[in-house]
Amino acid sequence: MNANQKKMKADDLKLIVKDKYSQIAHKSNVLSESKCYGTTGCCSRVDYSVFSENYAKLSGYNPDADLGLGCGIPTEFAGIKQGNSVLDLGSGAGNDSFVARAIVGETGKVTGLDFTDAMLQKARENIRKLGFTNVEFVQGDIEDMPLPDNSYDVVLSNCVLNLVPDKAKAFAQIMRVLKTTGQFCVSDVVIKGNLPDVLRKDAEMYAGCVSGAIDIDEYLDIISKQGFKNITVHKLKEISIPIELLSNTMTQEEIAGFQKGETGIFSVTVSAYKE
To answer: Which H, E and C letters describe 72-118, residue by residue?
Structure first.
């Protein structure tokens, strides 16, 4: 595959993600529609709730901003302090941004970055409802952030970097925008072993964070190669993909082979420091 073909593939994947998350933004809550496996019309074929965790007891939690799209709670391990400047990558409707805002308080600032118009609109509507003046949502690509160097104490991301075609570029950008003493904490989906080709080739599964997953060792190696220090895996939780979901892309024989194999799909929460 030449450079132009790779770029075309990456651009295609970004369009898939943008289209799917635009659809999701127009639904009230993915979690409320997660039981209609294998149907069309009412919801996506991907049950995003298999990844998500419960935010309800967290300070700053806003149900209107929770679309059930995360695969961890990165704010738990991000070391956010009052007065910090925080960047939330792939901020969606603002769920993690608003939790972070509760921690940084009135003297801090939270910026959410997303490239989907519908998600940005939803997030900005939530700001208006809450009346916050120190939270903003801006449009941009994680591989080429329209943000200044050395500007953030903490960078967060929740089940989003997986969807970025060039993860090395994404982590290089995180390195660029972090302050010298800054750190990131991300939750994402990774795999152990080889994911079946039928899952990797399915666009819906890519947008659902499954087929875009890479091996955890490769994931951590990418972080290390960008120069990050003190890389720490805080949580690693195996995700059980329901048969109803797998059957959308795999035969019964393929499902049986997949379940007996050594391949596993995991949510991981990892942090590291710029220096």
So the answer is: CCHHHCCCCCCCCEEEEECCCCCHHHHHHHHHHCCCCEEEEEECCHH
